[in-house]
Design goal:
Blueprint: E1 3-7, H1 9-17, H2 25-34, E2 39-43, H3 53-62, E3 67-71, H4 75-84, E4 88-91, H5 111-123, E5 127-132, H6 136-144, E6 149-153, H7 155-158, H8 163-182, E7 186-190, H9 198-202, E8 209-212, H10 214-223, H11 225-236
Parallel strand pairs: 1-2, 1-8, 2-3, 3-4, 4-5, 5-6, 6-7, 7-8
Helix pairs in contact: 2-3, 10-11
Bound molecules: pyridoxine-5'-phosphate.
Length: 240
């Protein structure tokens, strides 16, 4: 049964809109867990524009399910991860000034750096996931790097302009999930998923976890976190 990890970055985005102390992503994480989510995800960006070091530290103490940290593959972030020890690290590309993560990792160009960082995390008991586009080369390279998971970037599917494009992207994701499964990789998926487009993805077998943030936080503003999380849980666990 796939898990749902809820990304609470945008609770911190709202806090930082006023450089205030509220809303607190820590309080929200507790509510999200009580609503039944399987995990909490945060992205500690190098510019610290939403989630701060304080959030990571306190969430590590408070989160009882599983804490996933998205981060750039840099020595500064590696040090942070080894200090705080989240349950899982997802390595993502980061471009200064980007609105959100813009694509999967270019594994070929970062192979040496990744092959140094991944085992240092794993030796310290941290599971590693690589955010990748649904492409054969990236998935095969991920297996070579002996990562525990890949997270398939679902953006192209979620931004498809017509039904034909949507089906094409969905089938590509399905094929890449199958390939990753055969290569013994754990499989996560996320980015741009919402209450409508998650339905078809949730029917794909072998996906271990969905990482969803913006749509859940946006819905929670209207209906509250308990309902927003429960509604998404029902959708992602459709095959259960
Ligand atoms: N996965 C990764 C690697 C991300 O960077 C993000 C955004 O922080 C997400 C999933 C969640 O995306 P969204 O907020 O669109 O649900």
């Amino acid at each position: 049964m796939p898990k749902l990890s809820v990304n609470v970055d945008h609770v911190a985005t709202l806090r930082e809109a006023r450089k205030s102390i509220e809303p607190d992503p820590v309080a929200v994480a507790v509510m999200v867990e009580l609503a039944g989510a399987d995990g909490i995800t945060i992205h500690l960006r190098q510019d610290r524009r939403h989630i701060k070091d304080r959030d990571l530290r306190i969430l590590r103490e408070v989160v009882k399910t599983s804490l996933s940290l998205e981060m750039a593959a840099t020595s500064e972030m590696l040090e942070k991860a080894l200090e705080v020890k989240p349950d899982k690290v997802t390595l993502v590309p980061e471009r200064e000034g980007e609105l959100t993560t813009e694509g999967g990792l270019n594994i070929q160009d970062n192979f040496d750096n990744l092959s140094s960082i991944i085992p240092q995390l794993q030796i310290n008991g941290i599971l590693v996931s690589l955010f990748v586009n649904p492409e054969i080369d990236s998935i095969k390279a991920s297996a070579k790097l002996k990562t525990d998971f890949i997270e398939i970037n679902t953006t192209k599917y979620t931004e498809a302009k017509n039904l034909g494009e949507k089906i094409e992207e969905l089938e590509k994701i399905e094929r890449m999930v199958e390939l990753a499964y055969r290569l013994n990789l754990g499989i996560n998926a996320g980015h741009g998923l919402n209450y409508k487009n998650v339905v078809d993805i949730a029917k794909i077998k072998h996906i271990d976890e969905f990482s969803i943030g913006h749509s859940i936080v946006a819905r929670a503003v209207i209906v509250g976190f308990e309902r927003a999380v429960k509604e998404m849980l029902e959708l992602v666990k459709i095959n259960a």
